[in-house]
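Researcher: Let's try something more involved. This one mixes different molecule types, so please make sure each is placed in the same coordinate frame as the others.
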Amino acid sequence: MKPFAYLRAGSVEEAVDAHAAHPGARYLGGGTNLIDLMKLEVERPPVLIDVSRLPLEGVRELPEGGLWAGATVRNSDLAAHPAVRDRYPALSEALLAGASGQLRNVATTGGNLLQRTRCPYFQDVTKPCNKREPGSGCGALEGVHRDHAVFGHSRHCVATHPSDMAVALAALDARVELYGTEGRRTVPVAEFHRLPGEHPERDTEIRPGELITGVVLPAATAGLPSAYRKARDRASYAFALASVAAVLEVADGVVRRAGIAFGGVAHRPWRARRAEEALVGAAPTEDAFEHAVDLELAAASPLRDNAFKVPLTRGLALDVLTRLAPRTASPA
Amino acid sequence: MDGPHHETGTGDRARESARPTGPGPGASGGGGALGTLPDACRSTTTLRVNGVSHTLTVDNRRVLLDLLREDLDLVGAKKGCDHGQCGACTVLLDGRRVNSCLLPAVALDGCEVTTVEGLPALAPPEDREDGENGGDPLHPLQRAFLERDAFQCGYCTPGQLCSAVGAIAEAVAGHPSHVTDPAAPSGEPVPLTREEIRERLSGNLCRCAAYPHIVEAVEDVLP
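Model: All components are placed in one shared frame. Result:
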């Protein structure tokens, strides 16, 4: 690890000002990914700005019916929060499907969104990686890429985003709240992470020095049936080979709203817009789910060794959707 | 083991003792030697470890695990992977289980740490077990590990113990896990079935695969 200076920010404004004053600085939340990457010297920040004690904690009710979850809320606390469990079950399930008890006790909401890919080429500074070292090439494209993307990848990068939480947030139409020198703004989680294109070094739409202050869960998906299912190489404590988060609203025998996102298959949570469009207005039948999911999967372009992810994702998506459908179809 | 930049106290009277020069103990890659380090790259931090307050000036790179083992000579917590993947370094931070290998000590100023050495003191005196052959007292879970033969080489054991103590507290506080029925009522204690114990301890790897006996030992001490 390279030596670094450490600053503890007393306020959001102070943190952002400190970042502007220290080029190359990184914000420190729980550090469960950042410190690991610093040990690997993938990250070599000259300055860490500790934002873990900023007043960005807790989960608050919003006047219009949604929830605000602070950037420094630990993953375990967010997963256990009664309002999250009751109104946005997919989010709680996704958080609990990720990492270990120890890591969830430390990892923060903001840091979870900003965690980096676990692509082995990215994590090994002796290997080519366009995300870590733009222009050095992609080792995974023709190398070991069983765990990599099947949607939206480019010849510059085939990495996936590793978060479970972000997949649920994307399906639930949550927004990321950001604060920077240009002020406050919010971005849909589904549009926060980028596809790699020619610039895989940019994971997200965050601007230099911007700080995540929280996430906003909308009233529109509150209380709707939602769920998360994840497939991995072992029963627990592993990243997703593929995962699916879905929220489904059915009224009068017709799907009124569908939010579906795939995890572990793209550089960002893959919002299945084609499937959603096909479902809205249709009856929530098995045939309709198959038709919709297959429409989405038609856009998949697997690599040499990860074609298995397409039928895997299909099975997960159909399971989650059929699980949600009867619960909505039957009158309360 | 106290270096020139380390002061210990049993209460809040421990004073900051920042001496920015001179090599400290444990000059390994984790950042022990302070001699050639710029001032900006070290900080003074106060931690309460197993009930004793320590104020140390450390290289900012110092993670809690290295501070415990090399500066405080508390070698119970083990360095397995050093990347948060094996759980051997698990300790309790403000009562919650964490991987000490991923926590910069400077970010923990004012925090309370319990290592495996401090576990017996967490148990109510009436539940504390006498040690083997007149040794130190044991936490009931340590006694259960002995009785159930829940380890072979023992390297992962301190982490397993701290993790299980933390996991039991989480379940009592109503924290769900991946295998908890999503319909289970929020906020109520979660009964720890074997499936729950296995899931909740999945962040602690055991190279000897002593898992079945670890699960039994944990079952023995459930509230």
